Amino acid sequence: MSTLPLEDYKRYGRQMILDGFGLPGQLKLQRASVAVVGAGGLGCPALQYLGAAGIGRIGIIDHDRVELSNLSRQILHNEETVGMYKADSATQALKRLNSHLTVDAITTALTAENALSLLAPYDVILDCTDNAPTRYLLSDTAVALKKPLVSGAAQKYEGQLCVYNLGPDGPCYRCLFPKPPAQDTVGTCEETGILGVVTGIIGDMQALETIRLITGLHDYKPSLLMFSALSSPQFKNFKLRTRNVKCAACGTAEQRLGEIKDIDYVQFCGGPRPDWERRGLGEGVDGWRIRIKDFETALKSGKQVSILDVRPETEFGICQLPLSTNVPLGRLVANPIEFLPKKGMEAYIVCRLGNDSQIAVEALRSVSGEGVVIKDVVGGLRAWSRDVDATFPVY
């Protein structure tokens, strides 16, 4: 019978004494290989527990670098690794946990051209990413390689978990979502917010599902787990149907996907994700926008001005310009005439990046009379912090 290094009996003893686990379960983990795509909010807790459990080989695929804004939820990174590749930072942390781990740090972006070759060496694939194109790419690749895909997602106070391509009949991601969501309905954590511990819960669950698969503890019944930090109960589990026979990726009908390397996943999902900061710096409608330095000059001119901040109330509570008034965008658009400036007063509209403020100006100008000055601030409060007041908070 195979054995472990002597020190591993002490390291992994607490899990080896579990009924149904034992030495055979630990040996299965030792011989297994797992690829974790994304070393962020989901990937970090998943990696931490997979490494601690004794997975024999772990691949970390992530081409992004650590930023300060990551540290509230991406727990393998720290202040000293800001600027480092996340894959390298996570590897460093795992090696501190267990110097004997075999970790492949891959700082190359996962693409349709390299997905099959990068993921082929691993037994289980974890999707710890946050964008639709990569989700479809990983699902199609998992189907092609006949490997299970442990997929997690988290946003705001909510998360979800599913194992796709599970066993002979488990559905793939395309089975459930044959068409990607519209881009304007899907926001990033930067746009919508995220409670860090939610990513921790889902990432830990991804690690648990992976361990169950490898050790033979999984029941192989496809399901979708939904989590909400603010609901009671917080967890809800939904049984999933079997594979869709008409699925373009895994169905029994004639395959229609073609070669993965030939698929443009970004275009399939509606094109590149909008760069909202860059959009907020655009020219907009001629005469409707004011540059940040000109806005500063207007405030110092002594003129009577009105500053409307159209961010949500929560964001206004984080930081605001002196003498500004908070009117959330939805409220302003619903009744713009209520917020028109008084005659002879100039009105300036601000938001976080300079996008919502353009919508607000359009609504106000549609009901304003001649000679009323209403402009929005190019780049919003991000530009104010960058070009006027470096002490103004950026979040």
From TrEMBL:
It is found in: Cytoplasm, Cytosol. The active site is at 189 (glycyl thioester intermediate), 351 (cysteine persulfide intermediate). GO terms for molecular function: adenylyltransferase activity; ATP binding; metal ion binding; thiosulfate-cyanide sulfurtransferase activity; URM1 activating enzyme activity. Pathway: tRNA modification; 5-methoxycarbonylmethyl-2-thiouridine-tRNA biosynthesis. Keywords: ATP-binding, Cytoplasm, Metal-binding, Multifunctional enzyme, Nucleotide-binding, Nucleotidyltransferase, Transferase, tRNA processing, Ubl conjugation pathway, Zinc. ATP binds at residues 41, 62, 86, 130-131. Binds 1 zinc ion per subunit. Zn(2+) binds at residues 172, 175, 247, 250. This is Needs CLA4 to survive protein 3.
